[in-house]
Amino acid sequence: MSRAKGNIAEERAAAFLIENGFSIVERNFYSRFGEVDIIASKSDVMHFVEVKSGEDYELAIQNITPTKLSRFTKTVYVYLKKSALDVDFCIDALIVTPHNIELLENITL
Prior knowledge:
Layout: H1 3-19, E1 23-30, E2 35-42, E3 45-53, H2 57-61, H3 66-82, E4 88-97, E5 100-104
Parallel strand pairs: 3-4
Antiparallel strand pairs: 1-2, 2-3, 4-5
C-alpha cells in the first residue's frame, strides 16, 4: 500500500476514534522496533492502535502477523518507558475498509 493511502486510512482512523470518545495523544511514534500509528486515551486507559487498511476486512486483518504484533508490543513498551508512564493500556487494531471502520480492542498473540 502506498504511503498516501496509509495516511488517508490513518486520518479516517483518528477521526473515528475522536467520534467515539477517544483523545489522540500522539501519532506515528517510532522506535527501533517499529511504529505505533495512533496513541489515544479513553477512560484512563491508553490505547496503542495499529491501523490496517484494505479493500476488505480479510485483506486488512491478514497484515497483522505475529512478528508485526511482537514488534508493535516492543514499541509500546519503549513509549511507556520513554514517557515514564505507569498506566493501564491495551493494544488495539483499527481495520479501515472503503465502507467500514472496525476497532478490535486488546488484541494479543
